[in-house]
Please model this.
Amino acid sequence: MSEGVQTPPAFTKRVFSGIQPSGGLTLGNYLGALKRFAEVQEQDYETVFCMVDLHAITVWQDPDKLAHATRELCAGFIASGVDPKKSVLFNQSQVAEHAQLAWIFNTVARMGWMQRMTQWKDKAGKNTQNASLGLFAYPALMAADILLYHATHVPVGDDQKQHVELTRDIAAKFNHDYKVDFFPITEPVIEGAATRVMSLRDGSKKMSKSDPSDMSRINMTDDADAIASKIRKARTDPEGLPSEAEGLKDRPEARNLVNIYAALANQSVDQVLADVGGKQFSEFKPMLSELAVAKLSPISTEMARLMRDPAEIDAILRDGADQARAIAAPVLERTYEIVGMVR
Ligand code: AQP
Model:
């Protein structure tokens, strides 16, 4: 993470982040989350990463697919460079403390805070009466995920910023109401050229696992032909590429493809445009496909290899859950004491 991000004093520098096993991983999850998790693991932070299956079931998940998606997500973490020997890597439902602390936070968070969450509004749609109570309470569980580890920093894509801000509000209200300085005020860390990867079919929507159109996203398990075909068919406009970022203003689809290229190439948007400015999309799209295949195919090959041994993945998750519980249990215990529960 870059300099300038403030660490709350008195708390160990610790990163927490999670991904839902709500479908196959997308390029958005990779660039907005996994790639950065692997980078931050090598920096001066303790790192805790979670497959948030309790979050996934806030919308319907087929039980067989959920188990498969959880193991595949674990394979995706490892294949992207998250090393279970360096990071705590586990599955949320194996550490009961997440649900227990979430209950306390359900009593701290206010209805009005939850109603303002854009993810709730987007996912519940017009039919809020039929959405699950869990979907409404999602941000309180996310606050519990983060604060159970006293995490000081949360690397996320731009879409999750509002939830991390709510986590800060919950921590501040808990500390204030119980007159303690127990939970840190966590910093969201949103960095990189692709903090919000957009749909390949509609530059105003984020790329998402659960988008009904498979052509809207690049899946981490897509082969080279599928990646090339999706990029070839990606929506663009008739203009060529500009030489400076300013020329991408009001061109969301063009900006999205350039952002993806920049993030995959570890370059800034300006560096990319200095090279490709003046080219047509017919020339740029094959360059992007080649880069995407070069970066993603070693990851998908490794994911497929890991998935051939599900027992090994389960053992990694169990071991990670033991490590997670060792941090989480004392924090929950102290929370109960602060709240006044007889222990
Ligand atoms: N399009 C994206 N661009 C950048 N970052 C993204 N993330 C997700 N989509 C993008 C980041 O990935 C992490 C895990 O997200 P998640 O799976 O827990 O939930 P999500 O944000 O709701 O992702 P999806 O793919 O859209 O899942 P569904 O379709 O199930 O809701 C987060 O850090 C997120 O910011």
Notes: The chain has a mean pLDDT of 95. Residues 19-20, 22-23, 26, 28-29, 31-33, 156-157, 159-160, 195-197, 206-210 surround adenosine-5'-tetraphosphate (CB under 6 Å).
